[in-house]
């Protein structure tokens, strides 16, 4: 019996991903594994940082256009629907929309989806206290599982994917993901997706490398998670966070950098991985978009842009999409 066969399914999946990712050139790990409970808490701190404009911009959209967003997502007068949010986090922005829907007397169920059970428990508790009339059906799953379930979700639905999370996918993954979202949509169903728009490159880069070092701690927490869950022995004193932004591709790229030649043992994998001095692990992409790129991407995925909402500065767009008619 191997060590990996004793792992629970979620840890086994992480172990397989790490084993494959650290054999790549360059080495790479998915940003989805940032979000253990500690990572989710750190990301909440990031959203409050002065450099991190996306959260403030999207909040502004929800405050200014909340009623219009609620109307754009509702299937029609008197029709009940499910409001499904992928990657719900603390639901802070979504509460503005939920209040608009409740105030309008809309019949709906809120189904937040998040990979972090800790974040989900906190969200559900908060919603029960702040919005006791709200019907909540929490789902603790990753995106892939949630998308599979979405195909069998009964009745009309509106799916939220906020916070510029769509930018974390590479071009091919992004297109495939949107096609998966489009596939189960009925004509009255809607998507609401947040897109961070291209702007001053200096502002973008600063948002991912803040002066307080919270983003660095968020990136490095991935190594702490691997130490805990896979029995790795990363020494965080010999790793650092680095990020860059290319206006040509619209991509912010984040890395963990090995500051010396070192070897890391993974007990759960029964493997030792060597890192050269200044070798990197690519941990995240965060793409920024133009309105024309959003239109083209939607069309290629089988979606139609119904309405676009932006903040006053034009930093961010929340885009309502529907399936293209047959």
Q: What is the fold's blueprint, element by element?
A:
Blueprint: H1 9-21, E1 27-28, H2 37-47, H3 53-73, E2 81-86, H4 92-103, E3 108-114, H5 117-130, E4 135-136, E5 139-140, H6 143-150, E6 156-161, H7 171-182, E7 190-196, H8 201-207, H9 214-230, E8 239-246, E9 251-258, E10 262-266, E11 271-275, E12 280-287, H10 291-300, E13 303-310, E14 316-323
Parallel strand pairs: 1-12, 2-3, 2-6, 3-4, 3-5, 6-7
Antiparallel strand pairs: 7-14, 8-9, 9-12, 10-11, 13-14
Helix pairs in contact: 2-9, 3-4
Protein name: L-histidine N(Alpha)-methyltransferase
Organism: Hymenobacter armeniacus
InterPro entries: EgtD, EgtD_Methyltrsf_superfamily, MeTrfase_dom, MeTrfase_EgtD-like, SAM-dependent_MTases_sf
Fold and architecture overview:
Keywords: Methyltransferase, Transferase. It is an enzyme of class 2 (transferase). Pfam families: Methyltransf_33. InterPro entries: EgtD, EgtD_Methyltrsf_superfamily, MeTrfase_dom, MeTrfase_EgtD-like, SAM-dependent_MTases_sf. Residues 15-321 form the Histidine-specific methyltransferase SAM-dependent domain. By secondary structure, the protein is α/β, with parallel strands linked by helices. The chain has two domains: 3-34 and 203-287, no CATH class; 53-199 and 289-323, Rossmann fold, CATH 3.40.50. The protein is 38% helix and 25% strand. The protein is built from ten helices and 14 strands. The strands form three sheets. Strands 2, 3, 4, 5, 6, 7, 13 and 14 form an eight-stranded mixed sheet that branches. Strands 1-12-9-8 form a four-stranded mixed sheet. A hairpin with a 4-residue loop joins strand 8 (239-246) and strand 9 (251-258). The longest helix is centred in the first third of the chain and has 21 residues, at 53-73. It is globular, with a radius of gyration of 20 Å. Residues 1-9 have low confidence and may be disordered.
């Amino acid at each position: 019996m191997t060590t990996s066969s004793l792992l629970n399914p979620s840890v086994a999946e992480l172990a397989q991903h790490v084993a494959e990712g650290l054999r790549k050139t360059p080495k790479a790990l998915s940003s989805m594994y940032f979000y253990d409970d500690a990572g989710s808490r750190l990301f909440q701190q990031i959203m409050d940082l002065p450099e991190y404009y996306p959260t403030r911009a999207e909040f502004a959209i929800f405050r200014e256009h909340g009623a219009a967003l609620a109307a754009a997502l509702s299937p029609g007068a008197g029709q009940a629907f499910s409001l499904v949010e992928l990657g719900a986090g603390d639901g802070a922005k979504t509460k503005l929309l939920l209040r608009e829907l409740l105030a309008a007397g809309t019949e709906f169920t809120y189904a937040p989806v998040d990979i972090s059970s800790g974040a989900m428990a906190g969200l559900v508790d908060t919603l029960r206290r702040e919005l006791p009339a709200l019907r909540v059906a929490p789902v603790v799953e990753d995106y892939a599982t949630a998308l599979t379930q979405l195909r069998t979700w009964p009745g009309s639905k509106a799916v939220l994917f906020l916070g510029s999370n769509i930018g974390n996918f590479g071009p091919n993954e992004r297109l495939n993901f949107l096609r998966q979202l489009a596939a189960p949509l009925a004509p009255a169903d809607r998507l609401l997706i947040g897109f961070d728009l291209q702007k001053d490159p200096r502002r973008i880069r600063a948002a991912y490398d803040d002066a307080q070092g919270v983003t660095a701690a968020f990136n490095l927490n991935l190594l702490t998670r691997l130490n805990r869950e896979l029995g790795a022995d990363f020494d965080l004193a010999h790793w650092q966070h680095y990020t860059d932004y290319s206006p040509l591709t619209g991509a912010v790229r984040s890395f963990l950098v090995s500051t010396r030649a070192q070897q890391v043992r993974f007990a759960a994998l029964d493997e030792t991985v060597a890192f050269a001095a200044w070798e990197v692990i690519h941990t995240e992409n965060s793409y920024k978009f133009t309105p024309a790129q959003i239109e083209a991407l939607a069309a290629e995925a089988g979606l139609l842009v119904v309405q676009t909402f932006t903040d006053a500065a034009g930093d961010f767009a929340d885009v309502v999409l529907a399936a293209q008619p047959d």
